[in-house]
User: Fold this.
Amino acid sequence: MTTGALPRYRGDQRVTLLRVIHSEWTKLRSLPSTAWCLVATVALVVGVGLAYATLRVARPPADPESFDPTSVSLAGVQLAPFALGVLGVLLISGEYATGSIRVTLAAVPTRLPVLGGKAVAFGLAALMLCVPTVLVSFLAGQSVLSAEHLDTTLSEPGVMRAVLGSALFLTAVGLLGLGLGALTRNTAGGISALFGLLFAPQLVLGLLPESLSDAAYRYLPTPAGAAISAVHHDPVTLGPWAGFGLFCLYTAIVLGMAAWALRRRDV
Assistant:
């Protein structure tokens, strides 16, 4: 018994950016680590915010006028970059580890749309997760703080910007992880580079004279990016949007270096 050949596919087979984005979105959804990292992000943002708000209710501030209820609710935003940043690294380093990156680059010979598709798919997914997560964390934290009349509302000056800015900051950290993963092509190397870039400069500045460290502190990646999540401007940091813009510049530089390396390397 013989079987006939499969009919030739006659549909449009052009590689377009939208198709690459859809492909990368499928990969992101199918990664086992995606669910774990996203759950960890939600747990850190909401869980830490609730825990800190409960602690502050148990130990009310001595000066309620200087108390910042928004920062209490968003305390978990300082830890959540661990989860999203790692997911950004894994999104591309996992393909290098398994060798499936060869199939990806064979399907998209121009290569750059691969990195662009991953950035768009991951960035949108992270933003769609982080916006409702930080809103839930804020509202839940304020409901706890209201027991001691320490709560605030989204209509207060700077609060909405801090809440939504926290989501933007977390998304940018994830994209930074993606760029470092593409640049190092190694999971351990990408995660190490991410943590080093986010936290090591502050440790190094601690060894320098105070006058020099204070002047340089505001330009470091983490203090600059996190400035957008604060309601009240800290004199030692840049303004909210200026600081976040600088962090985005750091991220863009890393992604640009990753794009250059992707074009230059064989794989």
